[in-house]
Specification:
Strand content: 15-25%
Number of strands: 8
Largest sheet: 8 strands, parallel
Low-confidence stretches: none
Strand order of the largest sheet: 1-2-3-4-5-6-7-8
Distance between the termini: 13 Å
CATH topology: TIM Barrel
Shape: globular
Oligomer: single chain
CATH class: Alpha Beta
Helix content: 40-55%
Number of helices: 9
Radius of gyration: 17 Å
Order of helices and strands: EHEHEHEHEHEHEHEHH
Mean pLDDT: 97
């Protein structure tokens, strides 16, 4: 199993990070991708990856961290580290823009373009965050010729088809185990297994039966099992293919 999107570099794990990592590998994880959302968490991800060969880092500025856009040169510097396997997470998120809607959209689009340029310069894939912004996001990425994954996918079948046509991967979280995740069942049925990766987005989105607890990377097994159930495959089939997909995508 590979958790392709976890935030063990967040403060939620500062008191027991070694125990969480040890437990995750003891429960069957092979690798964990630590995803940066600003300069500080990107730096921590790189430092953690340097100390453990089963951890890999990504560097980027989350669209909700737009105030850090001015610090992007530091992200560019961090991207030179050999343990960095992707740029992001980056993307568009219009959920909390509030009164400054148009200015916020413009700033997020500029920041997304900076990440795309960096990824192409470093020949790295991109981890995309996309919330309440499907069409704007698609219009930006459709002609950029980049490798990418839509993390924590919550879109519909039609949007999934558009993303797949660009060659992107789609990654699912514990949301697919929620009652409100029923809309994703049809998406999972339609998306080929070779285009799917799995993640936890730890410490968030703990899957059933761990709702209400801090999410940890080993819980990705519940995401794998749910996909297996939906596609009428074995756990092993989904585990092996999603892990293989992740290794190719991240070059690990």
């Amino acid at each position: 199993m590979i958790d392709t999107h976890a935030h063990l570099n967040f403060y939620h794990f500062q008191n027991d990070i070694d125990e969480v990592i040890e437990k995750s590998f003891a429960k069957g994880l092979e690798d964990i991708i630590l995803v940066g959302t600003n300069v500080e968490t990107s730096k921590i991800a790189v430092e953690m990856a340097e100390k453990n060969e089963k951890l890999f880092a990504t560097v980027g500025v989350h669209p909700q961290e737009i105030d850090e856009a001015k610090e992007f040169p530091k992200i560019e510097a961090l991207a030179n580290n050999k343990n960095v396997v992707a740029i992001g997470e980056t993307g568009l998120d219009y959920y909390r823009l509030g009164e400054n809607l148009e200015e916020g959209k413009r700033a997020q689009k500029e920041l997304l373009l900076s990440h795309i340029k960096l990824a192409k310069d470093r020949d790295l894939p991109l981890i995309f965050h996309n919330r309440d912004s499907h069409e704007d996001f698609y219009q930006i990425v459709k002609d950029k010729d980049v490798r990418g994954v839509i993390h924590c996918y919550t879109g519909n079948v039609d949007f999934a088809k558009k993303i797949l046509d660009l060659g992107f991967m789609i990654s699912f979280t514990g949301i697919i185990t929620f009652d409100r995740g029923e809309n994703l069942i049809e998406v999972i049925k339609k998306v080929p297994l070779e285009k799917i990766m799995v993640e936890t987005d730890a410490p968030y989105l703990s899957p059933v039966p761990y709702r209400g607890k801090r999410c940890e990377p080993w819980m990705v097994k519940e995401v794998i099992q749910k996909i297996a159930d939906i596609k009428e495959l074995t756990f092993r089939e989904v585990e092996e293919k999603t892990s293989s997909n992740a290794k190719v995508f991240f070059g690990i």
